[in-house]
């Protein structure tokens, strides 16, 4: 695979983003997560490695008392077949470790690993149990980026929350050994990080990425009249920009939990279709739509809701917690 020459701002010239893991957070309330999704035939899957887990009720409470993000790391994996969930993993750990190897840089959380290879490949391997008390899950995703990373962007001016699309389009191979799944398709990879708890000042967002035959477009919508962000990746390169607000808001609908989600998912101004709910909770929804060669995956999050005592209590039932040894 051709090695793309795109440096991280502030690193020596010629240093590509995969030559080192982005810095991990080390202050109370801070977080960083590494997200990837894949569409492979009738399957889709999501992998997330989190340091300072946004899904952790323990971190939600503990961060206000000085708890550190490395004390609340997590691995999330979900497998879907024809938009129906087949497996769900959310495991929380009290530590993570970074290892420098000859082949690349590796983040370890429990038995699961995220590796940035020196040839540009991204490998995520999950070796887990379904939450909270389910069976074993072993899965692997390998991404070979086909478009350059975007520049890092600040989600909201003056707030310490940042987003960077690292691999907007990638050749992907998904293997779920415990399910007998092996399929190739198209993948996506990004990273978010911030210096304070989500929901403290940034209440939430919704975003969606659209894979088309030749181009990927990612739209990130933010509350409070903040202009949305767009990343476009295709034959003309990768571009991140802030877009003007729509003159008219697009329609939404309420989930059974009362969370407002888009009524339609779009590729530009073209409606792809009504989103199918892959995940639905009081504070978070994951959605998907496919039509005529277009594939959309997106999320809606209301982090203010998550910090309520009732919803934090409910979150315990979707999480497996590994206690300190």
TrEMBL record:
<protein>
    <submittedName>
        <fullName>Carotenoid 1,2-hydratase</fullName>
    </submittedName>
</protein>
């Amino acid at each position: 695979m051709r090695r793309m020459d795109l440096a991280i701002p502030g690193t020596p010239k010629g240093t590509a983003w995969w030559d080192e893991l982005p810095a991990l957070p080390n202050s109370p309330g801070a977080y960083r997560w590494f997200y990837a999704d894949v569409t492979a035939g009738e399957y889709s899957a999501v992998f997330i490695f989190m340091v300072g887990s946004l899904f952790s009720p323990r971190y939600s409470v503990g961060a206000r008392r000085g708890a550190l993000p490395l004390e609340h790391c997590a691995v999330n994996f979900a497998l879907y077949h024809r938009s129906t969930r087949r497996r769900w993993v959310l495991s929380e750990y009290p530590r993570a470790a970074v290892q420098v190897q000859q082949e690349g840089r590796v983040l370890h959380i429990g038995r699961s690993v995220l590796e940035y290879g020196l040839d540009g490949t991204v490998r995520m391997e999950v070796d887990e149990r379904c939450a909270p008390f389910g069976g074993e899950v072993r899965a692997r995703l390998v991404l070979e980026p086909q478009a350059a990373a975007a520049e890092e962007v600040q989600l909201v001016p003056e707030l310490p929350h940042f987003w960077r699309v690292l691999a907007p389009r990638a050749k992907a191979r998904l293997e779920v050994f415990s399910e007998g799944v092996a399929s190739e398709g198209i993948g996506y990879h990004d990273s978010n990080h911030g210096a304070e708890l989500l929901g403290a000042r940034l209440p939430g967002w919704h975003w969606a990425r659209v894979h088309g035959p030749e181009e990927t477009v990612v739209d990130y919508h933010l509350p409070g009249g903040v202009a949305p962000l767009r990343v476009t990746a295709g034959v003309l390169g990768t571009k991140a920009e802030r877009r003007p607000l729509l003159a008219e808001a697009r329609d939404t609908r309420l989930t059974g939990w009362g969370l407002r989600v888009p009524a339609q998912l779009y590729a530009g101004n073209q409606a792809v279709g009504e989103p199918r709910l892959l995940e639905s909770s009081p504070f978070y929804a994951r959605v998907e739509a496919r039509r005529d060669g277009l594939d959309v995956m997106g999320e809606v999050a209301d982090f203010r809701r998550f910090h309520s005592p009732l919803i934090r209590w409910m979150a315990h039932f979707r999480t497996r917690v590994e206690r300190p040894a």
